[in-house]
Design a protein that fits this description.
about 30% helix, alpha+beta, globular, 2 helices
């Protein structure tokens, strides 16, 4: 789902749609329906940078190919 939403955002940006407008911090104003999301291991470096910026946050990790809450765990340390 995250991949599809990100793809949709990029399409709207190409079309210069007002729906892809961002605020002064660079965050979407109207398409903020998903939290910051990373697909690991490919996005690990990006995740690590964000994690270090806000070490007080707790992250939700969900394994791929799982359903009904199986395999989900919380992370607050790298």
């Amino acid at each position: 789902m995250v991949k599809n939403i990100k793809r949709y955002r990029k399409e709207l940006e190409k079309e210069n749609s007002p729906l892809c407008e961002k605020d002064e911090r660079g965050e979407y104003i109207y398409l903020d329906i998903i939290p910051m999301t990373y697909h690991l291991p490919g996005d690990y470096n990006l995740f690590q940078e964000e994690f270090k910026r806000s070490p007080e946050l707790t992250w939700i990790m969900k394994p791929t190919n799982q359903a009904q809450g199986k395999g989900i765990f919380l992370v607050n340390k790298l």
